[in-house]
Amino acid sequence: MMKGTAVFKALGPIDMRNVGRDEMLRWMVFLPLLLALLMRFGWPALVRQLQISYQFDLLPYTTLLMSFLTIGIPAVFGMVIGFLLLDERDEGSLIGLQVTPLSLNNYLIYRLGMPILLTLVLVLVSLPLAGISTFSLGQLVLLALVSAPMAPLLAVFLAAFASNKVQGFALAKGAGTFFVVPLVAYFIEGTWQWVFGLMPTFWAPKLYWLFSDGLPFAWLVGLVGFVYQLLWVYLLARRFNKKLHE
Q1: Residue 26: Cβ within 10 Å count
Q2: How far apart are CA 195 and CA 202, in angstroms?
Q3: Region 131-140 average pLDDT
Q4: How far is 20 from 81, CA to CA, in rounded Å?
Q5: How far apart are CA 5 and CA 65, in angstroms?
Q6: Mapping DSSP to helix (H, G, I), strand (E, B) and coil, where does residue 204 land?
Q7: Which of 33, 123, 158, 182 is the most exposed place for a label (fewest CB within 10 A)?
Q8: 22 CB-side CA count, 13 A
């Protein structure tokens, strides 16, 4: 049975070739960095232009805009891995794993662990690159940790409920609602805001807002959100595993 680094050495190069072959997946990998650069150089210019042309001040919404990175980055990697899972399931390669040294469980750990690592790195890089937030390293690390589970959550959601890649695209569009709707909570005051916590995509932007406000209990919110998202990943992974054996 293959373990640890052997799985990454075996599957990593294959994934790089698959992503490099697919034009859509290839540009999606670089999307988080492009988005961060756009915020760094485009947002201040847009704020100035609206102030001059329409006397409309966008600065109060800077925190809301920046918090989108905490869900936008994992969404990108979640879709990339989700489509790879769908491709491999359609080709029958996942069933073929049963006669190889690589077990299905180890494969899923690799598949769902990879977007977590990518999200961790890209959140840590993209937020400072965007040049608007001034969080400490500890805050950035916690934000990255709370953002990361959303990537495997989306990936396994697509793989568990889509019958093919075409349905995967449709589901990905629908799932976009769950990544945007929690941002509405930014405009809601009081305890009603926490109703959006039923959506796993609420917790990372909420943590960003708390850090921006300097509230001391932010780490507790991050912990709750991290555990809640992992629970969803576990439940969806079980659903995907069951679908594979139907």
Answers
A1: 13
A2: 9
A3: 84
A4: 13
A5: 37
A6: helix
A7: 33
A8: 14
* Angle (deg, nearest 10), helices 104-130 and 4-21: 60
Q: Tell me, what's the pLDDT at 148?
A: 94
3-state secondary structure of 136: coil
Is the pLDDT confidence value at 95 over 90?
Answer: no
How many CB atoms sit inside 10 A of residue 199's CB?
A: 16
As a whole number of angstroms, the distance between CA 148 and CA 153 comes to: 9
With cut-offs at 50, 70 and 90, classify the pLDDT of residue 103.
Answer: low
Predicted pLDDT of residue 1: 46
Q: Which residue has the tokens 């918090």?
A: 67
* Average of per-residue pLDDT across 147-167: 88
SS3 101: coil
Q: Which domain holds residue 127?
A: 4-244
Please give the tally of structural domains in the chain: 1
